[in-house]
Amino acid sequence: MLRKPIVAVVGRPNVGKSTFFNRIAGSRISIVEDTPGVTRDRIYADCEWLTHQFAMIDTGGIEPDSTDIIMSQMRDQAQIAIDTADVIIFVCDGKHSYTTADEDIAQMLRRSKKPVLLVLNKIDQYKKPDHFYDYFDLGLGEPVMISSVNAMGLGDLLDDVVKMFPPHEALEEDDDTIRIALIGKPNVGKSSMVNKIIGENRVIVSDVAGTTRDAIDTPFEYKDQKYVLIDTAGIRRKSKVNESIERYSVLRTITAIERSDVCFILIDAAEGITDQDKKVAGYAHEAGKASIFVINKWDLLEKDNHTFNEFKMRVKEEFPFMMYAPVMFVSALTGQRINQLLEQAKYVSNNHALRISTGVLNDIINEAIALNQVPSDKGKRLKIYYATQVSVKPPTFVLFVNLAELAHFSYVRYLENQIRKNFNYEGTPIVFKVKARGE
Questions:
Q1: Is 235 annotated as a binding residue?
Q2: 239 in the same domain as 134
Q3: Could you check whether the bond before residue 64 is cis, i.e. omega within 30 degrees of 0?
Q4: 18: annotated binding-site residue?
Q5: Cα of 212 vs its chain's centroid, Å
Q6: Does the annotation flag 232 for ligand binding?
Q7: Does the annotation place 410 within a ligand binding site?
Q8: Is 383 annotated as a binding residue?
Q9: What InterPro entries has UniProt attached to this entry (predicted)?
Q10: Least confident piece of the model among 171-180, 297-306, 310-319
Q11: Is pLDDT above 80 for 270?
């Protein structure tokens, strides 16, 4: 299995990082569609260019209130991007020569030994400005001139980006190992969960400090199955830098999700479900990862005969886009049901890789059509010629139809439910792609 390379967009404020990111994600490359019911500020996109799939992360938009913390915040942001990325796009304001802040970031990038593309944004013509050669002083090679607003030079830039991706050998991951990302808001018990899982099983292969990923990877074995726990803990909110701290937290979470097979979405039972929990769950869902809702600190809750079912129902109501994800109630403090978590992770990981033969799949689709007629609009009726599964992790199906616009979301969801009734896809999202004849 190959993991997707990660491309980070870094640079100081007001150089056009977000414009660059939105232009790339919106028009020059294909982006995975937003799923209804998942709302968030988009700072990353699953992208494809010249058959290369990768994840792009936007680290821009930080505007600290105080000038005293602007440089430290900038350094923190750039460092996280450096630690997590395979390729870094360093965006500068091409209308002017570099600043001391640009120098500071460039120094960090040089030390990282990571592939870096120095980009001069806001250049609306192919003529090199007088200060173009100043940027050679940053020690990052010849700058690439682009205009995010006019889309000038973006194709050539992406050609250079994919050439810098690590070789396949460096991206290969052991298929036998189940990688579990523990994600959730601060203080929900992620690190305690890791410690309890490792402490109870006592079959640690090695402790590897994630100096290059800004997370701690802990490989171990349990019942002859290899696992890696990816802990994303360590983010604390600060009132004055709330927005930027949230962005760092998201950055760490997304990179952990990208590297995982299964996501444990931790929720504080005592605090209940929050908007931040919904954002975190949305990231795992959109990345197509197998997921389990882990309700931690269950021991702290005063319970009666209805508490369990009521909380489980509340999870389903608050996360309607993840009805497929099982819910488990645990305590990292007491160890309640901790070992069951690993069994459940193996279970949903297997479902995540489940494949259906084309013949059986089309039998299910035809039966579903017989039970519930396809939609029509203005005299035109949807025709589904056939369906096929094109990939796993997540299970991805393509429907070949006469007119793609007639394949309403509600009917595709109906077909998904029919597939789920016939096959065990608990714990994993299912992706449908609709293609019109001739595409």
A1: yes
A2: no
A3: no
A4: yes
A5: 18
A6: yes
A7: no
A8: no
A9: G_ENGA, GTP-bd, GTPase_Der, KH_dom-like, KH_dom-like_a/b, P-loop_NTPase, Small_GTP-bd
A10: 171-180
A11: yes
The answer to whether the annotation marks 181 as part of a ligand binding site is no
What is the per-residue pLDDT for 240? 36
pLDDT at site 266: 93
Helical pair 338-352 and 190-201, crossing angle rounded to 10 deg: 100
In CATH, what number is assigned to the domain containing residue 125?
Answer: 3.40.50.300
186 known member of a binding site: yes
272 is in an annotated binding site: no
Residue 97 CA to residue 132 CA, distance in Å, equals: 7
Both tokens assigned to 52: 């290369």
Domain housing 196? 175-352
139 labelled binding-site residue:
no
Q: Consult the annotation and say whether 231 binds a ligand.
A: yes
Q: What per-residue confidence (pLDDT) applies to 107?
A: 86
pTM of this prediction? 0.65
**pLDDT tens-digit map of 311-340:** 999 999 999 999 999 999 999 888 888 889
| Positive/negative CA dihedral, 117, 120, 126, 130 | negative
189 is in an annotated binding site: yes
**Residue 36 clears pLDDT 50, i.e. is over it:** no
Please check whether residue 1 lies inside any domain of the structure. Answer: no
16 is annotated as contributing to ligand binding: yes
Q: Provide the pLDDT for residue 233.
A: 52
Looking at the structure, tell me whether residues 183 and 278 fall in a common domain: yes
Question: Do 201 and 344 lie in a common domain?
Answer: yes
- Is 58 annotated to bind a ligand? Reply is yes
Closest CA to 21 of 134, 124, 158, 135: 158
Residues 110 and 181 placed together within one structural domain of the fold: no
Whether residue 238 is annotated as binding a ligand: the answer is: no
**Mean pLDDT within 61-76:** 48
> Does 305 count as an annotated binding residue?
no
- Is 427 annotated in a binding site? The answer is no
Q: What does the pLDDT read at residue 61?
A: 41
Q: Which of 21-30, 143-152, 413-422 has the lowest mean pLDDT?
A: 21-30
Q: Domain check: are 33 and 155 in the same one?
A: yes
Domain end, chosen from 119, 152, 170, is at 170
